[in-house]
Amino acid sequence: MKIRYFACALGLSIGFCAAVQAQQGTLDKIRAGGSITLGHRDASIPFSYLDGEQKPVGYAMDLCLKIVDAVKEELKMPNLKVNFQPITPATRIPLLANGTIDLECGATTNTADRQKQITFTVTHYVAANRFVSKKADNLNTLEDLKGKTIVSTSGTTNVKQANELNTERKLGMRILNAKDHAEAFLMVDTGRALAFVMDDIQLAGFVANHANPALFTISPDALSVEPFGIMLRKDDPAFKKVVDAAMVNLYKSGGLTAIYDKWFMKPIPPRNIVMNIPMSDAMKRVVANPTDSSDPNVYK
Amino acid sequence: MNYNWNWGIFLEASPDGTGSYLYTLFLGTRWTIAVSLTAWVAALVMGGVVGTLTTLPRRGWAMLGDAYIEFFRNIPLLVQMFLWFFVVPEIVPEAIGTWMKQTPNSSFWTAVVALAFFTSTRIAVQFRAGILSQARGQMMAAQALGMTLTQSYCYVILPMAFRIILPPLTSEFMNILKNSSVAMAVGLMELTAQTRAMQEFSFQVFEAFTVSTIIYIVINMVIVFGMRRLERWLAVPGFSFDRGAEADLRGGA
After folding, report:
1. Are A228 and A120 in contact, with CB atoms under 8 Å apart?
2. Residue B150 above 60 pLDDT?
3. Taking 80 as the threshold, does the pLDDT of residue A150 lie above it?
4. What is the rounded distance in angstroms from the CA atom of residue A116 to the CA atom of residue B6?
5. What is the rounded CA–CA span in Å between residue B101 and residue A151?
6. Do B2 and A187 touch (CB under 8 A)?
7. Is B15–A160 a contact, with Cβ atoms under 8 angstroms apart?
8. For residue B13, which residues of chain A lie inside 8 Å, CB to CB?
């Protein structure tokens, strides 16, 4: 009896999902609704986070606003309304797929697997997968981590890679999964793990914000390349064309370098920290030849 | 909705190299069951003891039991997990702290301890209710027969109390299973954590959560079924809530 009720409810909900699966281009949706919605993160510094006044700001937000300008021009709608919607790694896909947000402005790694579900515009940052550890432990290369306990954030491309390397090179590392970056960093801080494997830019942010940054060191050894991109819905060539063109124009006109300097080389809100991360050679190559590829070899 | 359904994803290899996605969910389910069952046994024992303490005609013990209940039930489970995982190892002597951090499966044991303490307070309150709901004459009769306080509790009061609170204990058993998902916060790769990992790797959100939803419901249905059987098996005619009698009243469904 109960089982029948349950099966019925499940069938209904799946049927409902399929029913609303109507295809509509993002540009048409924006024109009809008179507004565009940007998804932003709350603590992905300096890409997309909330400043002292709880307003979403950051490097990726600035790029998204440039894209919005291009959309305004394309649709000839100078008064287009811009909405902001907070998202988390867990909600970004469903909210993009169901049309709640139109662009995801954060620090999401572009991978071939993810492209089966959504698509990315031109890469806006090239991070590398590295690890942070205490200076006193003197860990510099992956080989130094042999047989040690390390941590990474569950569900990230970084933990995936750590697992792959562990099997491939028979390192025998114990890999812990933390719920989020802050907790993973805390595990290294409290000695539960010796190293935290993550995108170097995120690690730099945690070290800079720690009470005693001199305690930590980020490995010179890079384990992989992580190209970040702004996400948009798949199979929407008209919208992707507008977005890509806006990004490429920005890269070619030198506007990107100015925005990059604003967020990575100068004091940023709310506490006026300076990230002090000059543009990498890989990113300079992307600026010269913009690409939306997920293939790490393209960035080497 | 612009979503690419792909139910075949479960048979694809998961990137952590353990096997298919379905297998990683199975591994998660195993942790979920292990942590829930271990914590449940501990919580039942601790809750039974504390609940009994609070009803004793000894003021000191009763106050100790009340303090325990108020302390552990007024702190959110998530905060308790963090306290056991991050704070306790720092405040105990360093050798013990290091041991706590380096024991294999430390997140499993942390989750068990936190869940057991949290759930035991709820079970304690139910035990107290089960004991106090019995007529006062019950205890007097036991003592009139010459039983000591301990004997009255062991042979008369507690066996009845346990039967009376079996239905709410069923809910508590189901709660501990659902609450075990909080163990994700201390890095235990249980079912919810594996589901989230799967959605992050594959971006197939709805498939991942649909399957884990079904797994949780199925396990909970097994619990309900098992506890009903236990209730019927332990029923004392005329005393416990009799489901057969209830069905008769409803017209024998």
Report:
1. no
2. yes
3. yes
4. 10
5. 13
6. no
7. yes
8. none
The β-bridge relationship of strands A81-86 and A216-218 is unpaired
Query: Could you tell me the CA-to-CA distances from A281 to A285, B89, B115 in Å, in that order?
Result: 6, 43, 49
Q: Averaged over A114-142, what is the pLDDT?
A: 93
Can you name the CATH fold of B17-250?
A: MetI-like fold (1.10.3720)
**Whether domain A128-225 has CATH 3.90.1640.10:** no
- Each residue of A72-97: pLDDT tens digit? 999 999 999 999 999 988 788 889 98
What is the Cα–Cα distance from A61 to A106, expressed in whole angstroms? 8
Q: pLDDT at position A273, please?
A: 83
Model ipTM value: 0.71
Binary contact (A159, B101; C-beta < 8 A)? no
List chain B domain ranges: 17-250
Looking at the complex, does the CB of residue A176 fall below 8 Å from at least one CB of chain B?
A: yes
- Which of B127, B116, B143 shows the shortest CA–CA distance to B54? B127
Report the chain A residue with the minimal C-alpha distance to residue B88.
A190
Tens of pLDDT, residues B23-52: 999 999 999 999 999 999 999 999 999 999
Which pTM does this prediction carry?
0.80
Q: Does any CB of chain B come closer than 8 Å to the CB of residue A94?
A: yes
**What does the pLDDT read at residue A7?**
54
| Other beta carbons within 10 Å of B223 | 18
Mean pLDDT value across chain A:
88
CB contact under 8 A, A14 and B210: yes
- Alpha carbon distance B83, B88 (integer Å): 6
pLDDT surpassing 80 at residue B240:
no
Instruction: Enumerate the residues of chain A whose CB falls inside 8 A of the CB of residue B197.
Output: 154-155, 159, 177
Tell me: pLDDT of B245 over 60. no
Domain parsing of chain A, residue ranges: 24-126+226-299, 128-225
B214/chain A closest Cα distance in angstroms: 9
Contact A117 B107 (CB under 8 A): no
The packing angle between helices B205-234 and B243-250, to 10°, is 100
Q: Looking at the predicted structure, is the pLDDT value of residue A168 above 90? A: no
Residue B89 touches chain A, beta carbons under 8 Å: yes
Q: Is B106 an interface residue toward A (CB < 8 Å)? A: yes
Average pLDDT over residues A214-238: 91
Q: Which of residues 11-30 of A touch B (CB under 8 A)?
A: 14, 17-18, 20-23
* Same CATH fold assignment for domains A24-126+226-299 and A128-225: yes
Residue A253 pLDDT greater than 80, yes or no: yes
**What is the fold, at CATH topology level, of the domain defined by A24-126+226-299?**
D-Maltodextrin-Binding Protein; domain 2 (3.40.190)
